[in-house]
Amino acid sequence: MFDFSIVSSWIHGLLTGFMPEGLAIFLECVVIGVCIMLMYAVLAIILIYMERKVCAFFQCRLGPNRVGKYGLMQVFADVFKMLIKEIITLKNSDRLLYNLAPYMVILASILSFACLPINKGMEIINFNIGVFFLMAASSIGVVGILLAGWSSNNKFTLIGAMRSGAQIISYELSVGLSILTMVVLTGTMSFSEIVEKQADGWNIFKGHIPALIAFIIYLIAGNAETNRGPFDLPEAESELTAGYHTEYSGMHFGFFYLAEYLNLFIVSGVAATVFLGGWMPFHVSGLDGFNAIMDFIPGFVWFFAKAFFVVFLLMWIKWTFPRLRIDQILRLEWKFLVPISMFNLLLMVLIVVFGLHF
Amino acid sequence: MNIKDRILEIVPEAQFAEQGDLTATIPAESFHALAEKLRYDEDAQFDFLLSLTGMDWGETLGVVYHLESTKYGHSIVLKTMTANRENPELPSVTDLWKTADFNEREVFDFFGIRFVNHSDMRRLYLREDWVGYPLRKDYDDSLNPLRMTNEVTEDTTDELSLDDEGNLVNKTNVLFEDKEYVVNIGPQHPATHGVLRFRTSLEGENIKKIEPYCGYIHRGIEKMNESLTYPQTLALTDRLDYLGAHQNRHAVCMCVEKAMGVEVSERVQYIRTIMDELQRIDSHLLFYSCACMDLGALTAFFYGFRDREKILDIFEATTGGRLIQNYNTIGGVQADIAPDFVKNVKEFIVYLRPILKEYHDVFTGNVITQQRFKNVGVLTREDAISFGATGGTGRASGWACDTRKRKPYAMYGKVDFKEIVYTEGDCFARYMVRMDEILESMKIIEQLIDNIPEGDYQVKMKPIIRVPEGNYFASVEGSRGEFGVFIESHGDKFPYRMKYRSTGLPLVSVVDTITRGAKIADLISIGATLDYVVPDIDR
Question: What's the predicted TM-score (pTM) here?
Answer without folding.
Answer: 0.87
